[in-house]
Amino acid sequence: MSTDTAATDDTSAADVPREDAPPFRYTARLAGEIEARWQDVWQQQGTFHTPNPVGELSIPGRQVRPDKTFVMDMFPYPSGAGLHVGHPLGYIGTDVWGRFLRMTGHNVLHTIGFDSFGLPAEQYAIRTGTHPAVTTAQNIDRYREQLRRLGFGHDDRRSIATTDPAFVRWTQWIFTQLFEAFFDAGANRARPIAELVREFESGSRSVPDGRDWSGMTRVERAAVVDGHRLVYIAEAPVNWCPGLGTVLSNEEVTADGRSAIGNFPVFKRSMRQWMMRITAYADRLIDDLDRLDWPESIKSMQRNWIGRSHGAQVAFPVTDASGRERVIEVYTTRPDTLFGATYMVLAPEHPLVDEIAAAQWATGTDPRWTGGTATPAEAIAAYRSAASRKTELDRQENREKTGVFTGAHAINPVTGQQIPVFIADYVLMGYGTGAIMAVPAHDGRDFEFATAFALPIVRTIQAPADHPDDAVFVGEGPAINSANGEISLNGLDVAAAKSAIATWLQDKGFGRNQQQYKLRDWLFSRQRYWGEPFPIVYDADGVAHSIPDDQLPLTLPEMEDFSPAKLDPDDPNTEPLPPLSKATEWRTVTMDLGDGEQTYSRELNVMPQWAGSCWYELRYIDPTNTDSFCAPENERYWMGKDPDRPGDPGGVDLYVGGVEHAVLHLLYSRFWHKVLFDLGHVSSEEPFRRLFNQGYIQAYAYTDARGVYVPAEEIVEESPDVFTYRGERVSREYGKMGKSLNNVVTPDEMCDTYGADVFRMYEMSMGPLDISRPWQTRDVVGSQRYLQRLWRMIIDEQTGELRVAESDAPTDDETKRLLHRTIDGVRTDYQAMGYNTAIAKLIVLANHVTKSGTTPTREVAEALVLMTAPLAPHIAEELWSRLGRSESLALGPFPEVDPSLLTEDTVEYPIQVKGKVRAKIQVAADAATADVEAAALAEPKIVELLAGSTPKKVVVVPGRMVSIVI
């Protein structure tokens, strides 16, 4: 917008300098030349190539130092739009930190790759008819070009994309490791599935249903083994989007229950899918959070997502339509309220619903319970269809409770009473057992449902006297109305009542103590084309087998039509037809898996986009290794446990990314890594020992009278709070920068107009890295001024010659002390990633040198260049070279502080009289209080003010101020 461009006292912000500008001024044009040249030098010399202990990436002559640091950014997804200025915020932050550590003697591993499978690329390919491999490669090239221009110190030899066949090979290999493993609960770790089979064969482990292993068929044995695998096939509730022909993750579904891509309806339904048994690791995933240096907010989000709780599993008998007795299992954290359970609710998707539903409504059934339909089956079908169109969030937060009666009654095991069984969408199949005992007196949602359906409400906890009798009570108190002929909880507090009822349920066979989790196994199938094929084949009996390692990678077949089958987007009952089902030659294969050559059919689903991002940190370590996904020596060096840190789990030293990945990506990565640790493939127990969440770049966005976002760069500020677009007034709002708000500024624009170093410094100066910050292009000139001042301090703008004092010229005492205070502060700030405060200190020092009017000494000039280098590496390399240094400063040195110069010889005291500062004095830093007081009273301005009178009181605050009371 027009107000975002501003001239400075140094130069125009535009690329073309003013006609009267000195010929060697640091402008965007000169910056661009310098930046391109040094990027070429770094690439040609392999400046940021980091040596490995072993393998192809070891570098002859370059020492593998013990002080190593592995720093990572969260994977970018290479979209066709390229980067906007919000994307590089974290990347610049990690680059500054990594550059500083290299300069202080660390071996730093820093690179970046691309999470390049997924639905967006596939949908774009379907729309344009271009193969996703083509567009993905183009997008990656575009990103790499943009990232290179910003001068990142990445080891480009280590960069990978999840779509690279070499990467796919090891993603599939890790999948087979999980497929060929099971979780041994007794040992609390994963073990090879072959060991489980040997235990069944020897009889040391019993088959779960008690059958004799030796008498079972091959297919029966396979079914038993498959039931233990860490990867298995099961019926699971999924987000089915027939309009896209695929299952979607929760993150791909909008709040109103539609697909984020295409805006198609999404339905909840059960499908046969590949699952990963992440629930087996629930306790370790929670407990090991205490060992990680992560923000507490992220740890809390993971703990809440896993949702470990302690309670009881209670059995409610119910008779099905054929007269057989069934059991509805309910998990509750409040078994002490069991006497108040007056009805039950099943999730609409619960598998028992169809079995227990009555054929006809019983005489006297409340009309409010039936949904206005003729039979329970009709009511259930209609209600399920409606529920499938709602998101889980809608179902949980909707205060208007709906449901239908199944026509069946269960028995409350403590009262012996029959209680009606409903289905209602506020109960989710993915939580607990998918069934609840409803205690409306003490649960808000149950109370709302019971009120709507005229169901009994029985209070079993004594509420305070002032609590209304007709309102829900969710607090604690002594038990009431909780007794039968065998047990009484009345008068007991919550803890005692829980213990007593749990023991009674256990003794009577009605229940047991139970630890429960919200976490559910990870749904791992997608009905897409652009994803990793599963390394799985099925034999003639439908038994799944992993394909041999030497046949990996299994690559996608070349297909002209890779779109899913056209399905009715509004019909939730359609069946998926994966695009790979069209690859008729590819979908069958003849191979020998140990029983001679046979024909097998391939799995036609593909892995989700999460797969590659679950382990990419390990491939960064050893990307050219063809014998393993990562050599053990290299993994131990970069990610191994620190013996000097008790309880250290190992992992990447610093992982930086957005809070939006707080749960799923990080949880899935931790799960895969723990399995690899259990199976002996890695020495570290966690993938990321330290996590840092950067903030977001926010920017103004503008909407016209239609509510449509218009280009922010074309907005004119007519007057304060009055903005127009092409002459029409628009409204202004504030939000995260992005295409949807039409308020994108690209790093290319910033580099063209100011230079990459200015852009880098501006983003780091905007505030603490972990705080979201507003983007204002006009403010970039502050960073430009600093770099111009640094350039002008060392280079004569008229001649281009060096203007630094001779090397033996001494630095004056005041400047020398400020220099070392700056070195000390900047070192501390860089280490803590406090870049905005480091920049402020550099500006103070540069301003001091400029205002002194003297030619800077080499000591000061070199120190300023070196301290600026992590932030603005191109101009720093150029100035370092012009100062006569032949070696790159990328590997140091970084200025060292002289501690003796950090103490002040004198201290300035402001003198207050009647609450106002009237004068200032300089005294020795170690001056006694009496001497400070005497100096203050002798100051001429104070003498004149007192006019011979004696102060009533003089207060000296050591090192800070003097206050005189008259």
In oligomeric terms, what are we looking at?
single chain
Overall shape: it is globular
How far apart the termini lie comes to: 56 Å
Mean pLDDT metric: 91
Biggest beta sheet attributes: 6 strands, mixed
What structural category characterises the helix and strand content?
alpha+beta
Rg over C-alpha atoms, rounded to the nearest angstrom: 35 Å
Helix share of residues? Answer: 25-40%
Q: Low-confidence spans: pLDDT under 50, at least 5 residues?
A: 1-16
Supply the number of helical segments.
Answer: 27
Strand content: 15-25%
EC number: 6.1.1.4
Motif ('KMSKS' region): 736-740
Keywords: Aminoacyl-tRNA synthetase, ATP-binding, Cytoplasm, Ligase, Nucleotide-binding, Protein biosynthesis
Domain Methionyl/Valyl/Leucyl/Isoleucyl-tRNA synthetase anticodon-binding: 818-928
Care to describe what's here?
This protein has 966 residues and is α+β, with helices and mostly antiparallel strands. Among the domains are: 1-45 and 754-762 and 774-903, Orthogonal Bundle (Isoleucyl-tRNA Synthetase, Domain 1); 179-302 and 522-610, no CATH class; 309-516, Alpha-Beta Complex (Isoleucyl-tRNA Synthetase, domain 2); 904-965, Ubiquitin-like (UB roll) (Roll). Strands 22, 23, 24, 25, 26 and 27 form a 6-stranded mixed beta sheet that branches. A 4-stranded parallel beta sheet has the order 2-1-20-21, sandwiched between helices. Helix 19 packs across helix 20 and helix 21 (781-794) crosses helix 23. It is globular, with a radius of gyration of 35 Å. The two termini are 56 Å apart. Mean pLDDT is 91; it is low at 1-16. This is Leucine--tRNA ligase. GO terms for molecular function: aminoacyl-tRNA deacylase activity; ATP binding; leucine-tRNA ligase activity. Residues 74-179 form the Methionyl/Leucyl tRNA synthetase domain. It is found in: Cytoplasm. Its EC number is 6.1.1.4.
